[in-house]
Amino acid sequence: MSKYFTAAVESALKFNQITVVEAIKMGISEEALQQIENDKVNAAYDRAVNDQVTIAINGAKIEQARQNRLSKLGLI
Questions:
Q1: Tens of each residue's pLDDT in the chain, 76 residues
Q2: Distance CA 3, CA 40 (A)
Q3: Which of 30, 31, 33 is nearest to 14 (CA)?
Q4: pTM of the model as a whole
C-alpha cells in the first residue's frame, strides 16, 4: 500500500468521510487507526485549551476596559 493511499485513507477517517470498518477493509493497520484516534483526542484537547485561553484573555480585556472607564470617571 502506498504512503499516499494510506495518507488519503487516514485523512478520510480523520474527517469522518469513511468508517473505521471501511478503513480496515482498505488495509489500514490497527496502529494507524490508533494514531488517528490519538490525533483526534489531542486536537480536541488543544481546541479546549485554546478556547479557555481565549476566554481568559477576553475576560482580562473586558476587566481592563472596565477599569479604564472607572478611572476616567474618577471612581478609582
A1: 688 888 898 889 888 899 989 999 988 888 888 988 898 899 999 999 999 999 999 999 999 999 999 999 998 8
A2: 20
A3: 33
A4: 0.61
